[in-house]
Queue: 3 jobs
Job 1
Amino acid sequence: MSKLHFEDFTPGRVFERGPRRVPRDEMIAFAAEFDPQPMHLDEAAAKETMMGGLSASGWYACCILMRMSVDAFVGNSTSMGAPGVDEVKWLAPIRPDDELRLRATVAETRVSRSRPDTGFVRFDFEIFNAGGIRVMTLTTSLMMERRNTAAAVS
Amino acid sequence: MKFFEDIAIGERAELGSHTFTADDIKRFANAFDPQAFHTDEALAEKTHFGKLCASGWHTMAVWMKLNVRERQRTARNLEMSGIPVAKIGPSPGFDELKWLKPVYAGDTISYSCEVVGKHESRSRPQWGLLSFRSSGRNQHGEKVVSFIGHVFIERRDQGAGEGA
């Protein structure tokens, strides 16, 4: 199967993935290593926080979004990574054993000026929980190779 | 953490450093970001990165690890001095994350943090929203990552203001 190139990402195109379960053990193991705050580690302590119960680290949520993106389309693309992330919003808690869905919408594309063989594809990513509530959004531009820029004349 | 009112814009903190080993980079990437330049030395050499490098999310997760460690250290110091410790709430998100240079296997990244904004929460009078710019530099002094984060911090004068 040929990989997705810059030209395949037309504005408005949508990629979806999920449901993907976020197991309690994995969620807590991530928090224990990278984000050991009570609201991410301990059910009783988490009830006393603004989150009102055990919730995933926002960084774990970013990692799950990344993994679902790789599985949805990035892994089958000419992605060269991203120079950054414009904005992330953590809108609602992600609870243990929830089932998350990913929606990635192509917002706009542009050819790189400094590297005409590549282009930037800006995506609006959204994560929804099993109840259909949007729990997170992320906006970023991925660098993709252009198709046949060298061989275009042949 | 100090209370929201006691934190000044421009305050800086050094969060410490972390060395990214090849094994750690691959373990993290295999779980969360399985792209060749993060999971396989030989394949990474054929990409524009030229060498195995850490997932950008790995560099951010380690930032959080060091950030929490620094907060806990600060809280212990306040407690030992008999000073009340403010609660730290969740974060509504972050902006302007820039992965400026790759973090290669063996690189040591030192992170720092500077307060850049304070906003009282209208809907949550017991909290203030603190904004900070954080960055990481490698062992050559090159900035590799930078972003603006936001986090709720407990206020000393809870609801004493106009609230609303």
Job 2
Amino acid sequence: MGTTGALPAQRRVFAVAVPVAVALVLVLTLLLSDLVSPEVRQSASAAGFLLAGLLATGCCWWRRRQTEGRRRRSWTMFTTAAVVALVANLFAVAVDSDPQNPHVVGEIGLGAALLLSIAGLLTFPVVRRRGVDAVLLTLDGLVTGGGVLAISAVLVYDRLLEETSSGLAARTSALLFPVLDVVLVTVALILLQRATGRDRYALALIACGFVMYAVADLAYAVLTALDRFSFGTHLDLGWIAGYLLVGLAALFPSTIADSPPSPRTVHGSDTRGTVLVFAVLVVAGIVQVRGGEKLHGALAGLWLLLLLAAAARQALLAADNASLRRGLERRVREQTADLHRLARETEVLLASVGDGIYGVDTEGRITFVNPTAAAMLGTYADDLLGAAAHDRFHTDEEGGHPGGGEGCYITEAISTGAVVSGVEDAYVRADGGTFPVEITASPVVDEGEPRGAVVAFRDVTQRREVDRMKSEFLSVVSHELRTPLTSIRGSLGLLAGGALGELTPRAGSMVGIAMQSSDRLTRLINDLLDLERIGSGARPMEIGSVDAADLVHSAVTQIDGMAAPLGVRVRTGECRGRVLADEDRIMQTLTNLLGNAVKYSEPGGVVTAVAVEQNGHVLFSVRDQGRGIPEDMLDSIFERFQQVDSSDSRQKGGTGLGLAISKTIVERHGGRIWAESDYGAGTTVHFTLPAVPTARMTHDGPGDQPTVLICDDDGGIVEVFSTFLRRHGYRVTGVTDGEEALALARAHHPAVVLLDLLMPGRTGGQVLAGLRGDESTGSIPVVVVSAIGPEDEPGLVSEVEGWLVKPVTEEHLVSVVSAAVARTRGALVAPAVPDGGGE
Amino acid sequence: MSRTVLVVDDDDLIREVAQVALESVSGWTVLTADGGAEALAVLAEHRVDAVLLDVMMPDMDGLTTFRRMQEDPSLRDVPVVLVTAKVQSGPRPVWDGLAIAGVIPKPFDPMTLGDEVSAMLGWT
């Protein structure tokens, strides 16, 4: 296998080889001039032959090693041809062959070399032809070759035939060689015309080489016939230059991978082919006329053949073009049909979508309505087309977007070029009724020009109904369970309290059991509802900045009353830091953890509560010296109704929900809760809460500008976005933590919140839910800025006012933010639980 | 000092328990009503020191009853304590901002009910 020569290295070699070849030719030109003695000239010519022949052989051999496949075969043949020709020439010199009567071995060698060269050329890979092209190529070859033959016939053969005196072998070889030369040149020319890429330059050099060779051969043949040939003249330069050019062609830089020829159609070369063919014909014609020879037998036949071939060629070309055109027309028809089918598919698709979709132009006129939209609106698509969307869809009724195009999501989408989603609106049916919808309005942009907008809307009546039913169910369950419990607990309390007279000791103890059970049932109901509400977000966290030490102290004070009778001491350790938390909820968590710790402590045990600030969090820990928790239960104790000992709920008075509630609360704060235990020696429950950042806030800019709250865990991005927005006159507040963002949004009511989605702790989705769940922040527009696109979080798209995918340009950021600032959300979500709304 | 209070609840069992508790534990005089309408009727005839009002009742609920009392000049100054099974519901209690004296969650402890009410109203 050959090595792959690097292209630059090949270029350097070629750049050296060209001047060397030129210099060699120049030196020989001087040496072969008449000023030099014939002996020296002959020696110089012989040396030139040998050198050029060896160079050509070497170069062809080298190129052969560099290539593969058909190309390698071609170069093998060229190499062999060069060797054979060289040997034949040397042989002729060695036997001192008489040009008039050449030695047959030398002649056969030269003939073989020519044939090998032709074969090599024909093996050379060029664009593969389909049937008609192959015939055309053959006809082209026939006409070109015939033309050259005709020229040679007029110029050379007549005289050759007249002058050649000697025997059959001499005549044959004298006639054969020029013919072979002509064929060789013709093949090289045609190949040149059909070649692609770098091959073309190499083939051009080869063609030039063979032309030189052929011209020298023809001249030789004529001179020999005239008996005027002598070795050591400028004529020898023809052969020598031929060898050198073939050598240069071999050196021409190319790579193996350079050319599997591309099977492209070569109609550009049809013109070139026609020009070449007819140029040869015209030249042949001129030579024929100028030569003044009469058209005798063979030559007339040749001309007839030539003209027929040329005519056939043109006819074939015309037919081929016609069929090509028909093929093109057929393809156009097929593609048009494809387009129709595609359009039909799109239409069916739009008709089948469950959401209503309509399109408007830049004037706000409806240009398209899908059947679902028409059905939802209780009308026909035709009645809507052309109508003004703003008048048709907006309503001043409750929950509706007020009429007119100002601040409307359609206008918004068209003017900002950004997708406006999650807008709530109420649409009017043809019968006058309204229904709540959720909108996504997307701008339609064609080649950079706004063409209008497409609006998709979804009837959210059912979703609203489900939400309402869920909270109503919770409300009813709570009421219905507590009502009978109230009278049970009340009666038992009165009995046990002795308000209705003394009970016997046994009766008193039974009433006591019943009372304890009813208390437990009450706690269970409270905890279950609590868990449900906190988990579902029906009761949003009211996050504020709270001192960790205050929280711990209050909780310890509360639990002291329960601990003292059990002989357990509750101790407060070191407490530092401020947290962003819902004070009541964290108190609930702390008293729950402390209560557990006390319950599971032996008399005389110590329970310790500490709070430590670390890495933007405050770590709370409640440690007891109780019996501990087995390793395999450390995670499951945070699940509902999971207690280490199933009798605990009765003995210790717990519901089995306390830790589940604590976990839910902590996680809703963006924290983490876990337990560590040394079984038999005590348990520590840890949880983290986000710490109030110290100097992270950056308020500046003029006071009347809208404030943008940026929340991204990457401080660098916060910095960059702040710079961008301040440059456009916004006030900016940047935070790197979701909980912080929620607290600040409640405190400052920014005009827009820019929210990253993928953040440690509280994710952007949770922050969004927190914002939306609070009346005071629910209507603040939120723009998501994330590495992930809306398609990865389809559930969020309708909840936010914009979506930017990182990386974000300054221009894009500012345009989306300004659009969001201008936005007023269609309707505020009503409070989740219609409390006191009657039974 | 003996007090007269009105207990309003649609559940007669709860009414009875509350009445027994306040009468036998606190020694108060207890009037009862099974709904808002009856409560207003009782209030029109009797002077009471306080009203213990259930929130969720059919027909006229507690809050409506409370508002009706506010509209009546003679009843405006009668203190109202809500007794409700819905303490923890909703993002924000519906009685927020109303001039009520206090809220007692159900189930209540009958032995301390009177004390709780006294504490809310500043009775000694």
Job 3
Amino acid sequence: MDKKKLAKDIVELLGGKDNIANCVHCVTRLRFNLIDDSKANKKEIEELDGVMGLAEQGGQFQVIIGTSVADVFNEVEPLLSDKAAGAVPETKKKYNLMSILDVLTSIIAPIIPAFCAAGMIKIILLLLTALKISDGTEGAYQVFSIISDVAFYFLPILIAMSAAKRFKTDPGLAVCVAGALLYPTFVSMVSGGESLTFLGIHVPMYSYSSTIFPALLGVLLLSYLHRFWDRVVKWNAFKLLLVPILSLGITIPVTLLVLAPLGNWGALILGKGFSWMIGTLGPFAGLIIGFFMPIMTLTGLHQSLAPIELLELTSGGFSRILPIEFFHNMAESGAAFGTGVATKDKKFKALAFQTGTTAFMGVSEPALYTVMVKDRYAMLSAMIGNGIGGFLSILFALKMYAYVWPNVFSIPTFLGGDSITSNVVMLLASIVITFAVAFALPIVFSVLGLRKDRDIGVMSPISGKVIPLSEVKDEVFSKGICGEGVAVIPNEGRVVAPCDGQVVAAMNHAVGIIAKNGSEILIHVGLNTVELNGEGIKVFVKEGDNVKRGQLLIEFDKDIIEEKGYDTTCIVVKTNGEVKVDNDKRDTLSGEKLFLC
Amino acid sequence: MEKISVTLTNAVGLHARPASLLTKLANNFECNIEFYKNENPGKKGKLKSILSVLALGAAQGDILTFEANGRDEKEAVKAIDAFIKGGCGE
């Protein structure tokens, strides 16, 4: 199939470039907005070689191409006037800090349960030894110590598995890439200080256990190579054999030689930067490190602090950076508790208190990944709290005299040096201040109206049977043109407000509400019921009314409407964004949760 | 700024379906688009929000005025004109 010719033909048959107001593409379709639909020659387009079909939907011409749509789009694009072409907004790739963070979060989030298990067990083990219940030599202690460490030691494997999913590549091969970094032969060569040459090139020898970026970069490379070889190897019989060999055969050496050391070098440069900062900036270095600590922890970069801390401990006998990590947990805990107090969302509140407790115990990741990533003001609060903690830490010259997991049980490691008592007093004061600041900020942000609850629960406005929107017999809803949500086949005629908010549109068959978090919710009673002109339906609210969840919005007579031949399915959609639906095939009572948005 | 006035012809006005389609169309363009009815710019709506379109409550025979501001304002206004004149996809 000649894609250039196909593109040219499509554009011509649609009435030329001047008739095309806009063109985007999704996974299989070219989507055109035409200025004059009548100029399009539908029949001939459908008959073009390479066109699988044509659909018209929502004033949009969709030319179905199949999976090679991107290639055809690339040919269509230069044929259009410079303004008309673009990728679909939802798949538009924007490379900025947030998208990198988004990729990192989506890769790290699925492996958090493993971290949590390890973290909690680590704390219990620390407590057992601190209270002298165990001396750390029993078999059971050893086994639990393995559990507490396995997720960290084999972090590259977990990352590979998760990254394979995110980068859409073969999970088996991805795990092999990470496994190579941790392969016993390689590990023993690293610890034995031996050298390794690959085709005459010296392989940088680093330990890659507990690292994120080496495996991540490796799997990223794998995803490209795998796709490349899959495309290049045309011979299907050999595909199964050749593609994995060629993919791994290149990815693993390149990862060991370049990508993995690159990840490590990045960490080392970071470390040198910190030592220099503390030397020259004093407490302000603590402020800066503390401020960015939540983000570093979120991205896993804080792992790279471990070598610096160890260096500090082996050379001077104490660490000044470890306390900032300690304050990180206090700040995360404070910010999570503060957010828990500030939020009105019950589920989020429970989550915030729970993760706040875990953070106080020394495991901040649950708070980071469940509360901070969802609520930027919680994140900001943690950052400011941590910044203040870092400032005080360097100002009071707080030091930790042993390498530990920084949590409340590690307070004893602050004891050392000459002025033990003042050290402890300063430490306690700094803990209280850090926690208090991080706790107070989300509440202050809420009072100032800056922090808003992001997810609100939308309740069912009516009792009946919940069905997915796709089953509604009206394309505007079933295709999601009006927005995301669910439909309820009602067994009563009383429609109540699904959430608190302000009525912005009140028609004789539908009500639109803007919720406190900015979600625009439309409750639409029945299909095509606009034609009834209010017959059999009574609306009890008007534009500008503030409504409470459960407040009566509309009453309708199901029998009258159905007699006239109308479908009474009630649609509840958010018209300005995504929603999270748990279960869209069940019975519901009025007031039961439908979705979060 | 590009401005255009069109008379709404479809029988039941801008209810959920045409409003959704119109908003979807508007969202294909980069420019900011506002609109009002019957030459009353005192009550303007944003075309890129379905609820805002519904809130205006436009009925058959209403004159709708669209004001587009931005890079692709000409194309947007053309597309909207065609959409309304074509009966709002109904």
